[in-house]
Amino acid sequence: MLQTSARLLRLLSLLETRRDWTGADLADRLGVTARTVRTDIGKLRELGYPVEAAPGVQGGYRLGAGAQLPPLLLDDDEAVAVAVGLRTAAGVAGIGETSVRALAKLEQVLPSRLRHRVRTLQTATVAVPGAGPAVDADVLTAIAAAIRANERLRFDYTSHQRTPSRRDVEPHRLVSWGRRWYLVAWDTARDDWRTFRVDRMTPKVPNGPRFSPREPPEGDVAQFVQRSVGAATWRFHAKVRLHASVEHVRARLPIAVDVTPEGPDRCVAEVGSDNAQMLGLYLGMLEVDFEVLDAPELAAELAKTGERFLRAARPPASGASAKSSGDASATS
Question: Looking at per-residue confidence, does 94 or 305 come out higher?
Fold first, then answer.
């Protein structure tokens, strides 16, 4: 049987890994009686850990939130992940200095083997400064709290076209993409899913009423953000029929797009870019045959680009080659 202090640490570690535990499960894991578990739970509470009785679970326990932050138990991989995360927190405004202080405290107590792993990752990694806007940490916290509580979120918003509006949404997930943060939410006024740039949001308090969470859009929030953000910033749009499978197209296009299958080796895609020329180059990189369905500007640009490539591929005329050879002989 573990000594009391070691057993308390083991008990705390178990409570941190799962939301609800029955007393019987904890006793079995620790190799003690249910009475000993109850005694150890009392000792953890005396130390400041808010261990609560889990509702709906007979003799159950859960680790709740208290008035103060008690010490946390992290395994090796978790400690390294936290340290690396603190080093890369520069994308959120207002927490740079705080993250440095937290990192200093963490590294002070890290075992030498873990400190070496963290420093190895640091020296082997170069962070390229991004041009994306910084996001206020308080805004991220407010949005995350509304998501967790299933409360409607109200905020002022400035669109990509600099148009101001007031939004009332059911927040679903925060998505970090590159140097930007996005909120995926159900827009109650538009009765549809929408993506919002967090740096353009100004939340209003208090939050709205609670709501029942909906199924995530398209089953993949990250892909939904990629597709919706890309489509919102395109200046030129087109619909094309591609002679390839949906999987082939999605794997090769640089961003997610709407793709509708028309068979095992054919599909229709709604694509876009800043201009027709750039879109033509993207489509050419797919290395599949395709047809332009609704964009004459793209068709004209493809014809122009195709003629240019054909001229480049044709061998020079024989007369020009002979002239060039003669010129070379005359100068030698």
Answer: 305
Higher pLDDT, 115 or 187: 187
pTM for the model stands at 0.51
Q: pLDDT tens across 110-135, in order?
A: 888 888 888 787 777 666 555 566 67
Q: What radius of gyration do the chain's Cα atoms show?
A: 30
pLDDT 10s digits, 52-79: 887 655 668 988 876 556 666 777 888 8
Distance CA 47, CA 43 (A): 6
Mean pLDDT, range 291-306, rounded to an integer? 91
- Kindly list the distances between the CA atom of residue 320 and the CA atoms of 78, 240, 308, 325, in Å, as whole numbers in the listed order: 70, 41, 19, 9
Most confident among 262-266, 277-281, 283-287 (mean pLDDT): 262-266
Dig out the tokens for 37 from the structure. 């578990």
- Exposed e or buried b for every residue in 171-191, given b needs 16+ CB within 10 A? bbbbbeeebbbbbbbbeeeee
In whole angstroms, what is the distance from residue 129 CA to residue 270 CA?
33
Cβ burial, residue 154 (10 Å; 0-12/13-18/19+): middle
Q: How far apart are CA 95 and CA 91, in angstroms?
A: 9
Dig out the tokens for 44 from the structure: 């953890």
CA separation for the pair 244, 285 (Å, rounded): 13
Min mean pLDDT across 152-166, 189-203, 285-299, 307-321 is at 307-321
